[in-house]
């Protein structure tokens, strides 16, 4: 086992102070990170494959620096080893081939940041949170256009080849978006930047919404998908509906992925004290006790063939369990290989005193995606030309009249002029991040000017983190990009109904 020049240079070490032994590196790793590195090494010894591990190591000055190592394990010998090959100087990546006797090939090592030995988690979280917010905006905004225009192409296509291409664009775009969301969510959680809401929501409605999203896929595969009450449940709980929906979506998605025949059931029951349980059961392939110990680790799946056979980043279950714990509960699993699995999500329900219980599931209302009334005047403030054109198309197709501007200051000017003419807008759609005056400032300014119609803010940032500020500024709702057309139209319809338009 050999350490390359780059690893030593990143730590300001030489062959004498950092000899070629895994124990010498472990002696430099921060105690809080040592278990994570050892877990990665043990995992690679059992099931070699791609890995990414982040850890702090002490450099020659006695300071801990963040390191990110990435590479791929290879079953070359039974002994555990770590090899980092020749590379660039401090601050750069080390690239190259590992020694032939290694079980782990480290293709890149990057020094991520300097930390004082007494640096606090909070001081680390602030710059990370800013970085994540910027990355979220830069990634989600073009994805809005990609998925949206794929929808337009799919609707307009008549030749089979064009329709097939459009479906592929949309399918792969959605897949990429799920991966991006998983990576951003995991990064937010680890940076301490994940924010949660507490809203009164129906657990039955949440469950039905999740399963309705998967109904076409279940019909296509012939798997029965259903929601069941396993006992009386509270009609309302106080939690973060976005994160609960995300957890259930991940679990139902996995259940359908690994179930070729039979059923997938989402069952609800009241838990002990002030809690509620969701059980996602399937008749799929199941997992062994050994695999259960691995599936909640990030970037890890049941076995080495899972990513090739079924796809997925291996982040969904890890994120879901972390979210469940943040919501005051946890996720547990029971499984029998060849017979199926049951994943149980238990979360805090908030106070239940006086909350009525639900004992049966009522049929969902038809027409919930009914389009809003036509002839509405809509003010659209969006600085991205492609997204502006896409949103205008969706609205004008429903018969609405749209005036589009590229920043919040222009939106205020146009709205004020329209009010003076006696032709006020019925609704405003405002992007969160714009030049001159951003969405938050535009919302406040519109309210101060006397605008009384609904204001829907569109954001490529974390919705939970933006919602409180946006609602305080006077917005009616915050929607996340990429904007799904039916979700947008339903939101517009709902808020206009409340406003009496």
Alpha carbon gyration radius: 26 Å
The helix tally amounts to 15
Major β-sheet, in short? 5 strands, mixed
- How far is the first residue's CA from the last residue's CA? 72 Å
What global shape is seen?
A: globular
| Strand segment tally | 18
Hey, roughly how much beta strand do the residues contain?
15-25%
Class computed from helices, strands and strand pairing: alpha/beta
What is the multimeric organization of the chains shown?
single chain
Fraction of residues in helices? 40-55%
Structure description:
This protein has 501 residues and is α/β, with parallel strands linked by helices. The protein contains 15 helices and 18 strands. The protein has helices at 5-11, 22-26, 31-46, 121-156, 160-191, 203-221, 241-257, 289-292, 306-310, 316-326, 385-397, 408-420, 439-448, 463-473, 485-499, and strands spanning 50-58, 64-73, 83-84, 104-115, 199-201, 224-229, 233-234, 237-239, 263-270, 275-282, 330-336, 340-348, 357-358, 377-381, 401-405, 427-431, 455-459, 477-480. The chain has a five-stranded mixed sheet, covered by helices on one side. Strand 17, helix 14 (463-473) and strand 18 (477-480) form a beta-alpha-beta unit. It starts with a helix and ends with a helix.
């Amino acid at each position: 086992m050999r350490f390359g020049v780059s690893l030593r240079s990143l730590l300001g070490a030489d062959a004498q102070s950092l000899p070629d032994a895994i124990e010498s590196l472990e002696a430099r790793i921060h105690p809080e990170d040592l278990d994570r590195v050892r877990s990665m090494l043990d995992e690679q010894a059992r099931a070699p494959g791609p890995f990414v591990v982040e850890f702090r190591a002490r450099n020659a000055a006695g300071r801990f620096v963040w390191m990110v190592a990435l590479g791929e394990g290879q079953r070359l010998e039974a002994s555990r080893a770590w090899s980092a090959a020749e590379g660039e100087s401090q601050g750069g990546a080390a690239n190259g081939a590992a020694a032939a006797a290694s079980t782990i090939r480290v293709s890149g090592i990057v020094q991520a940041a300097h930390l004082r030995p007494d640096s606090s988690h909070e001081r680390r979280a602030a710059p990370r949170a800013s970085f994540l917010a910027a990355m979220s905006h830069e990634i989600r905004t073009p994805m809005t256009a990609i998925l949206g225009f794929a929808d337009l192409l799919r609707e307009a296509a008549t030749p089979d080849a064009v329709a097939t291409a459009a479906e592929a664009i949309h399918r792969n775009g959605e897949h990429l978006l799920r991966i991006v969301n998983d990576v951003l969510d995991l990064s937010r959680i680890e940076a301490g930047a994940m924010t949660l809401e507490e809203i009164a929501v129906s657990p039955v409605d949440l469950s039905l919404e999740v399963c309705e999203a998967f109904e076409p896929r279940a019909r296509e595969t012939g798997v029965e998908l259903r929601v069941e009450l396993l006992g009386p449940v509270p009609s309302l709980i106080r939690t973060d509906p976005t994160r609960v929906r995300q957890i259930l979506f991940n679990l139902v998605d996995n259940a359908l992925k690994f179930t070729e025949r039979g059923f997938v059931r989402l069952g609800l029951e009241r838990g002990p004290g002030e809690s509620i349980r969701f059980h996602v059961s399937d008749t799929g392939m199941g997992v062994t006790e050994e695999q259960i110990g691995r599936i909640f680790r990030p970037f890890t799946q049941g076995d080495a063939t899972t990513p090739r056979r079924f796809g997925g980043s291996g982040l969904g279950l890890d994120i879901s369990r972390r979210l469940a714990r943040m919501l005051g509960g946890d996720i547990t699993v029971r499984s029998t290989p060849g017979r199926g699995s049951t994943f149980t999500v238990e979360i805090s329900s908030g106070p239940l005193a006086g909350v009525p219980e639900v004992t049966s599931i009522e049929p969902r209302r038809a027409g919930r995606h009914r389009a809003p009334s036509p002839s509405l005047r809509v003010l659209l403030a969006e600085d991205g030309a492609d997204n502006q054109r896409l949103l205008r198309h969706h609205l004008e197709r429903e018969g609405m009249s749209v005036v589009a501007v590229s920043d919040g200051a222009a939106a205020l000017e146009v709205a004020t002029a329209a009010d003076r003419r006696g032709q006020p807008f019925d609704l405003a759609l405002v992007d969160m991040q714009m030049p001159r005056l951003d969405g938050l400032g535009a919302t406040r300014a519109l309210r101060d000017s006397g605008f009384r119609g609904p204001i829907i803010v569109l954001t490529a940032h974390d919705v939970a983190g933006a919602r409180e500020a946006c609602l305080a500024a006077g917005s009616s709702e915050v929607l996340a990009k990429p904007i799904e057309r039916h979700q947008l139209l339903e939101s517009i319809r709902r808020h206009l109904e409340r406003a009496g338009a």
